[in-house]
Amino acid sequence: MYSKSHSDTFFVQIKQNSNMFKRENSFKEADIQSIIIENFQQWEHLSQNDIKLTPLTGLTNITYKAEALIPATPKAIVFRQFGNAEGFIDHQLEKIIFRTISDKKLGPQEYSCSETWRMEEFIERAEHPNNQTMVDSEFCFNVVGLIQKFHTIDAPLPNKHTSNIIKSIFSEEMRLNAISKIAQSHLFSNEEQEILQLFQDSISDAFEQEYLIQMIKKENHENLVLCHNDLNQLNIFNSNNRPLFIDYEYCSYNYASYDIGNFLNECVINYQHPDEPYYSLVEDNLFHKQLSYFAALTYVTHQKATPEQISIIRQLIVPQCNKDKNLIQQLQKQIENILQQDINDEVQYMKRRIRRMMIMTHLYWVYWSILQSKGSIQFDYINYGMMRFQIYKQLLQEEMKRDAHSKEKTSSIRSTDSDDS
């Protein structure tokens, strides 16, 4: 994926409100300091007072930057206490994936690990991309290219033949778990109950659920690949327009279009908002329909091009070209000339799959928000979930309209053919 150098950064400290990700059952600082001293050989000479802990951001795990206050190598590490996202994360599989990526030197090094925590490499000097950077054409080209490389990793996981994420979205267990959580009315305010009822009505709508199932089955010729599945801005670093990925809790074998669609969806959410609720919707990035076209073109290009050709193609990327259909079409012609092959059918297919998977990724995170709510992490899961639910509904309505228009067009053509016969 990328070669590690001294300037690479896999984890970065972020300023945050101390209550944003507070967990009731998290380790005390003294416990963490003791665990580090007992399990990290390079720091066994330190005392608790020699280790400074600084909270880092995260919606699932509790993470700290642990810094040695006296001479030690390395100077800092990351301590991660695993979260309890039951039904969403298999920590045993996540450990396998993390170790695989670490061993291949494609991500942060693992120092030590247990059932409840992990110590990881912390390297300085990088930043999370802001939402303007997330939709910058060159950065998008580089991110989707890195996604494609990530998809070539062969991880030793037991299940490579089923998308567990898609399977879970349509599972009766997931639906009943959400309904059971919603039924605990004592946990939620009246306003929250009204919000949750809208979601319950949606997942109980047999027509809507069957439409989604058929939508995913339609034109499904994709192979399953190892996907990150959670490429929001806090899981991406930007170093001179060179993206780096971290946090593999949600990695699994899935469809490439899902991974890309999820990244595009995350471009519209700012997780670095300084004030409550510490996230915000970036409307300028919302519903740019050409982003999926550009992403599809980029992904297919990285599948087919040599590194030398990618370097040439990267020079053709101009600002805003990922938001302008004419510019994307011009770029595609230039790429086809370089590759000396027609890739339009593959690009258009991937574009349609990404568009449909963007619907599914929002739905997945709505489920996640509800089932995570009122737990040990104090975060505004309900309103966050409703924000994504509203986007999900709008994208779904657009897809349904597109299908209806396509059927009308097909019916009209058949009628014309019948009249001519």
Mean pLDDT over all positions: 88
Q: How many helical stretches? A: 14
Q: What oligomerization state is this entry in? A: single chain
**What's the gyration radius in Å?**
23 Å
Number of strands: 11
Secondary-structure-based class equals alpha+beta
Order of helices and strands: HEEEHEEHHHHHHEEEEHEEHHHHH
Q: How do the strands line up in the largest sheet?
A: 1-2-3-5-4
* Overall geometric form: globular
Measured distance between first and last alpha carbons:
57 Å
What is the makeup of the main sheet?
Answer: 5 strands, antiparallel
State the helicity in percent bands. 40-55%
Indicate the proportion of strand residues: 5-15%
List segments where confidence is low: pLDDT < 50 over at least 5 consecutive residues: 1-22
